Request: fold
Amino acid sequence: MISNLQYNVPEVFHRPAPEAPPDAPLAEKYIAALRVVAEIDEALTRGVVHYRRLDGRLLGTLDEVVRAIIDDDLMDEARPE
Reply:
């Protein structure tokens, strides 16, 4: 057990961070995806980019934008509104 002043936490919960995947192309894709998500989050936080679903609904959170990307429901910037 490891004590953090208030609670005794089993050591099983104190594992080191996982290492990079051994498959280099997969690691590169993962890093690129993290960068895209960080850029979307920054744009939403600063209010400099607005994201919409195909039905025109404004997306205001990172979760909504990521879900729209996964569902292929994100409006292209070039598409007229």
